[in-house]
Amino acid sequence: VQLQASGGGLVQAGGSLRLSCVASQNISSILFMTWFRQAPGKQRELVATVSSSGLTNYADAIKGRFTISRDNTNNMLFLQMDNLRPEDTAVYYCHIPGGNWGQGTLVTVSS
Protein backbone atom coordinates (compact mmCIF):
# COMPACT_ATOMS: atom_id res chain seq x y z
CA VAL A 1 0.00 0.00 0.00
CA GLN A 2 1.39 3.38 -0.98
CA LEU A 3 0.62 6.35 1.23
CA GLN A 4 0.77 10.05 0.39
CA ALA A 5 0.54 12.67 3.11
CA SER A 6 -0.54 16.26 2.54
CA GLY A 7 -1.85 19.30 4.37
CA GLY A 8 1.30 20.65 5.96
CA GLY A 9 2.28 24.29 5.93
CA LEU A 10 3.33 27.29 7.97
CA VAL A 11 1.15 28.24 10.93
CA GLN A 12 1.52 30.46 13.96
CA ALA A 13 1.67 29.02 17.44
CA GLY A 14 -1.82 28.29 18.69
CA GLY A 15 -3.10 27.61 15.20
CA SER A 16 -4.47 24.46 13.62
CA LEU A 17 -3.75 22.23 10.65
CA ARG A 18 -5.37 19.08 9.33
CA LEU A 19 -3.13 16.52 7.71
CA SER A 20 -4.52 14.00 5.24
CA CYS A 21 -3.12 10.75 3.94
CA VAL A 22 -4.51 8.86 0.97
CA ALA A 23 -3.82 5.16 0.50
CA SER A 24 -3.48 3.44 -2.85
CA GLN A 25 -5.51 0.45 -1.71
CA ASN A 26 -8.37 -0.43 0.60
CA ILE A 27 -7.40 0.10 4.22
CA SER A 28 -10.38 -1.44 5.99
CA SER A 29 -8.48 -4.64 6.79
CA ILE A 30 -5.36 -2.85 8.05
CA LEU A 31 -5.32 -3.23 11.81
CA PHE A 32 -3.24 -0.18 12.73
CA MET A 33 -2.41 3.08 10.96
CA THR A 34 -0.09 5.68 12.37
CA TRP A 35 1.33 9.16 12.11
CA PHE A 36 5.02 9.72 12.80
CA ARG A 37 7.04 12.90 12.76
CA GLN A 38 10.69 13.80 12.44
CA ALA A 39 11.98 17.14 13.63
CA PRO A 40 15.26 18.58 12.33
CA GLY A 41 18.19 16.76 13.88
CA LYS A 42 15.99 14.33 15.77
CA GLN A 43 14.86 10.76 15.38
CA ARG A 44 11.52 9.89 13.88
CA GLU A 45 8.90 9.46 16.60
CA LEU A 46 5.43 7.94 16.81
CA VAL A 47 2.72 10.56 17.22
CA ALA A 48 -0.57 8.70 17.05
CA THR A 49 -2.13 5.33 16.24
CA VAL A 50 -5.65 4.34 15.21
CA SER A 51 -6.96 0.80 14.97
CA SER A 52 -9.39 -0.54 12.39
CA SER A 53 -12.16 -0.23 14.99
CA GLY A 54 -11.28 3.37 15.79
CA LEU A 55 -9.33 2.94 19.01
CA THR A 56 -6.66 5.61 19.34
CA ASN A 57 -3.38 6.14 21.17
CA TYR A 58 -1.25 9.28 21.39
CA ALA A 59 2.22 10.35 22.37
CA ASP A 60 2.27 12.32 25.61
CA ALA A 61 3.66 15.39 23.85
CA ILE A 62 0.54 15.85 21.71
CA LYS A 63 -2.16 14.29 23.84
CA GLY A 64 -5.20 16.54 24.08
CA ARG A 65 -4.14 18.64 21.09
CA PHE A 66 -4.05 16.19 18.16
CA THR A 67 -6.77 13.82 16.95
CA ILE A 68 -6.18 10.88 14.63
CA SER A 69 -8.98 9.40 12.56
CA ARG A 70 -9.47 7.17 9.56
CA ASP A 71 -12.02 6.84 6.77
CA ASN A 72 -11.99 3.24 5.63
CA THR A 73 -14.54 3.93 2.91
CA ASN A 74 -12.34 6.47 1.17
CA ASN A 75 -9.01 4.93 2.20
CA MET A 76 -7.84 7.96 4.09
CA LEU A 77 -6.11 8.80 7.36
CA PHE A 78 -6.25 12.17 9.09
CA LEU A 79 -4.47 14.08 11.83
CA GLN A 80 -6.23 17.13 13.23
CA MET A 81 -3.64 19.29 14.99
CA ASP A 82 -4.85 22.07 17.29
CA ASN A 83 -3.04 24.48 19.60
CA LEU A 84 0.17 23.94 17.66
CA ARG A 85 3.49 24.75 19.28
CA PRO A 86 6.90 25.56 17.74
CA GLU A 87 8.16 22.20 18.99
CA ASP A 88 5.61 20.50 16.74
CA THR A 89 7.64 21.62 13.73
CA ALA A 90 8.58 18.48 11.81
CA VAL A 91 7.98 16.42 8.72
CA TYR A 92 4.90 14.30 9.35
CA TYR A 93 4.50 10.83 7.84
CA CYS A 94 1.55 8.50 7.66
CA HIS A 95 2.64 4.91 8.01
CA ILE A 96 1.40 1.36 8.15
CA PRO A 97 3.48 -0.74 10.54
CA GLY A 98 5.83 -2.92 8.50
CA GLY A 99 5.24 -0.94 5.33
CA ASN A 100 7.37 1.43 3.33
CA TRP A 101 7.84 5.08 4.22
CA GLY A 102 6.24 7.52 1.84
CA GLN A 103 6.88 11.19 1.37
CA GLY A 104 5.93 13.24 4.38
CA THR A 105 4.46 16.69 4.70
CA LEU A 106 6.26 19.56 6.41
CA VAL A 107 4.62 21.38 9.30
CA THR A 108 6.28 24.57 10.49
CA VAL A 109 4.98 26.37 13.57
CA SER A 110 6.26 29.89 14.17
CA SER A 111 6.38 31.50 17.59
Kindly state the percentage of residues in helix: under 10%
Distance between the termini: 37 Å
Strand order, largest beta sheet: 2-10-9-4-5-6
Q: Largest beta sheet, briefly?
A: 6 strands, mixed
Nearest-integer average pLDDT: 96
Uncertain spans, ≥5 residues at pLDDT below 50? none
Which labels suit this protein?
111 residues, mainly beta, 10 strands, 6-stranded mixed sheet, single chain, 4-stranded antiparallel sheet
Report on the structure:
By secondary structure, this protein is mostly beta strands. It has strands at residues 3-6, 9-12, 17-23, 32-38, 45-51, 56-58, 66-71, 76-81, 90-95, 105-110. The chain contains no helices and ten strands.
Summary of the model, kept short:
With 111 residues, this protein is mostly beta strands. It has no helices and ten strands.
Task: Describe how the helices and strands are arranged.
Blueprint: E1 3-6, E2 9-12, E3 17-23, E4 32-38, E5 45-51, E6 56-58, E7 66-71, E8 76-81, E9 90-95, E10 105-110
Parallel strand pairs: 2-10
Antiparallel strand pairs: 1-3, 3-8, 4-5, 4-9, 5-6, 7-8, 9-10
